């Protein structure tokens, strides 16, 4: 029993490490001059090739693919393409540490969009609503801290050079640009989650939907890349770091992460999965400073702490809300059974 209970914990730790690895390797690949457009195409094309047989094996009886659902898949692919393009550009301008910190904004932005589209009810007398609202404000405040304030360096590598005033100003500007792009990515990714929640009701085959998502992202990425990247050398997977990053992103960033997360979701629920998100910050800082040569700043530490507090506040509010709703539903069912004793007796006889 102990081993079975520990498996979801191990699985989620592995997926967060894998996710941080994707961010770090994509940064390394783009630092060699690889276009983020071409990186998006290669990684999603390879992920599609992996997910096609996987989805066919997993969903042997699939719902019919109507034209309406296909249009939704194309639209999801468009949002995914723009989100990934903007997200990788943000990582390229900033650092893996900032990228992983910003990912913790996803629950906050998802909550805001859910309220806008009336998928979430807001009751200001409820502690759950107050916790989610406060957590959302804290997360966004933390995002502004890590984007606009660097502060002194806390962890330096031996390769760090003393920069001139002009270089430092340029680096600070790129950091702000990267933070803004990552904020845009979080909004787009949250929008994608809202749409996926609606589409999955019409087409309840998760892996097949993810395959179409990656497939249409790859199609749109290659079309734009062929227009923008006219130099054929830009498509090269040399040096080897580019190939490693593409393969790793496709295998571990898509197939492995989706498979393990889905398994853990069925075993332990969505709140359990969300609890492990801040782990990616620790992994990214450790690997980034040790192997990539990143510098860890005070602003990143303070902002990440504020974002994580906001993240857990949103998740606590959501978990408490589900608990209250579950208790109310059970109470309603018990009251209903008391009102119809003949039905209860009939069921017991059966």
UniProtKB/TrEMBL annotation:
Keyword set includes tRNA processing: no
Span of domain EamA: 20-147, 178-314
Naturally occurring in which organism (per UniProt): Prunus avium (Cherry)
Q: Name one GO molecular function term.
A: transmembrane transporter activity
Q: What lineage is on file?
A: Eukaryota, Viridiplantae, Streptophyta, Embryophyta, Tracheophyta
Keywords assigned by UniProt?
Membrane, Transmembrane, Transmembrane helix
Per the UniProt record, which residue ranges are transmembrane? 35-58, 70-91, 97-117, 129-149, 175-195, 207-228, 243-265, 272-291, 297-315
Protein topology in the membrane: Multi-pass membrane protein
- Family named by the database record: Belongs to the drug/metabolite transporter (DMT) superfamily. Plant drug/metabolite exporter (P-DME) (TC 2.A.7.4) family.
Any one annotated GO CC term: membrane
Q: From the Swiss-Prot or TrEMBL record, give the protein name.
A: WAT1-related protein
Q: Where in the cell is it found?
A: Membrane
Task: Give a yes or no for keyword Transit peptide in this entry.
Answer: no
